[in-house]
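EI: anyone free to look at a 300-residue chain?
SC: sure, send it
EI:
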Amino acid sequence: MIISASRRTDIPAFYHEWFMNRIRAGECTVGNPFNPGQVLRVSLAPEDVDVIVFWTRDPRPLLSSLGELDARGYRYYFQFTLTGYPAALEPRLPPRDELIGAFHALADYVGPQRVIWRYDPIVRSNLTDDAFHARNFGEIAAALAGATQRVVLSLLDPYPKTTRRFRRLAADGVYIEEINEVDAALGALLRELAATSRAHGMDVRSCAELFDLTAYGILPGKCVDDDYMRQLWGIEVTHAKDRTQRPACGCVQSRDIGAYDTCPRSCVYCYATGNIARAEARHARHDSKWPSLVATEAEG
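SC: here you go
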């Protein structure tokens, strides 16, 4: 079994104590996000876990516990999102250069092959136009050279919850562009980002992308990647596509142990947070001794 920790929230940044408590207990429980009355038990025993895939924007709170994970025999790698967007889009993130330092600290410990950089999603707006992305991506890529071997790109996908936020931003003069096609300008940007990636020693992949980006030098990717796990550890895991993900997602099956509406970062494009006030309240009342990240019986 592959554990996803987590597409739904940033466990390394905000729920690392809970995660390590559940590792020591050998199991956790997870509420079904579409059926709140259904709670599933998930084994976290080392013999039951093939690989843990961490998703984070700041792994530093978890760094001191990685030695314990190693001693217990867990395999793991990180999906590290680092975009460096203006505060209007990412209001509660540490400064870009601080996160670059965190990326290096993580890579120094686990190795560059086990930290994947996500420049995800690409948000085109009047604050982040194509010139911004070319410059910003190039600066981050140069700073991360040698600290990672792969970068993941994706284009902004519209969701009702994010579209509502975009409308509120427009009232403040920030305009998010809806991407309905890969036009000549966007194609040129993608080709430049791919070339920049390769120049800094990074393989470049897309994530759950509706558009075919191979013409721009970007191959389809899998974030929960059976081939990648074989390359890292020489193991065979499930090869079955995860049917709970979007049709364009190439990931293989995993068990996600997170919960939606629990990340307090308030990134305006985030699909995992539908109600920011609810996410803040859930984070504030979280207890690291709970068996589930969210006390499902207390939800309302």
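EI: The chain has a mean pLDDT of 94.
SC: 👍
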